[in-house]
Prior knowledge:
The protein has five helices and 14 strands. A hairpin with a 5-residue loop joins strand 8 (228-242) and strand 9 (248-259). The chain has a 14-stranded antiparallel beta sheet with strand order 1-2-3-4-5-6-7-8-9-10-11-12-13-14. Helix content is 17%, strand content 44%. The protein has helices spanning 3-24, 58-73, 75-82, 92-97, 327-330, and strands spanning 113-114, 120-126, 138-147, 153-167, 174-189, 192-205, 211-225, 228-242, 248-259, 264-277, 284-290, 296-303, 306-312, 321-325. Helix 1 (3-24) packs antiparallel against helix 2 and helix 1 runs antiparallel to helix 3. It has one domain (3-330). By secondary structure, it is an alpha+beta fold.
Amino acid sequence: MNTVNNKGLRHVAIAAVVAVGIATTIATGGGGSGGGDPGNGGSNGITSPTMIITAENGGDVAEAVVTAIGLSFDIGDITDQNLAAQPGDSGLLAKATAGYYKSLPAGIQQAPENCANGGTVDVSITQANINTISAGDRIVAIFVDCDDGLGYVMSGTVDITFTDVQGDIVTEVFLLGMNIVMTDIVITEGTSTMTGEGDFLLTLDSLDFPIMRMSLQGDELQLGSNGEFVTLTDFDHFLQIDIGPPEALVADVLGRLASSTLGGSVDYDTPVTIEAVDNGDPHVGEILITGADDSTVRIVIIDNSSIRLDIDEDGDGTVDAFIDTNWDELNGR
């Protein structure tokens, strides 16, 4: 296998981890007091009982969830930084896949290869047809302190099995379904360290190009950042991009978030779809976050600069507190 293709496969594996961070990372958002008891047991001390949402912690809970959704709207910028696009490729999803699988020897496995700036990666490929990617093909990449000059060092294993392949991945029109298993992932960037463990289904769909869709679905995914941990369960995150012009983005998310920082867990969904244009902050949508005893904080997006938090502490359907905020505050910028 030649070095160019090895590097491409490495980027695909890293992109899988980055995609999770874009669409689901909550670990960097929202500190402050939690209203529930984290209890004992569970991953990293996080258990399933939910926390009570109050006027005091509602802002922190909202910030944690908004941080994740805000990152999903930055997917274009992040992928451009972390994927090696082939010359002439266009479209976000095409950049993530085009040209990486052409003429790869089937079933190849090799000794660890040196990464550009230190460390190694050991890539094995099971491929039915060397001229294309097919359902059932598999890529396993084992990283050991791998530094490819992308600004971070990565260790751990990423195992990708392709579950669905439609269209032509070297064009803008295709669909890829990938079951991705992350094991002992550690990503170090400067003084920050992120960890990941779990499995999920990632679907990239540009069959309706120039409309492109990404979905992340899974039963459990554990993420950590600098000693703080979150566990996402029963999650389903969806992002759609119409490259326009103007570029239009919509997002819907649901799942449960357990956070060591918040001291408990909450459920979240989007009863009103989140919308944004031209990489701006969302200007329409609602996010409903539910805690213990039906306590809630509803994030009401008034426009791209104004947000209202409606907090119902006792779950009786009556708003007990209002908080006026904005994207800078909720994103912690």
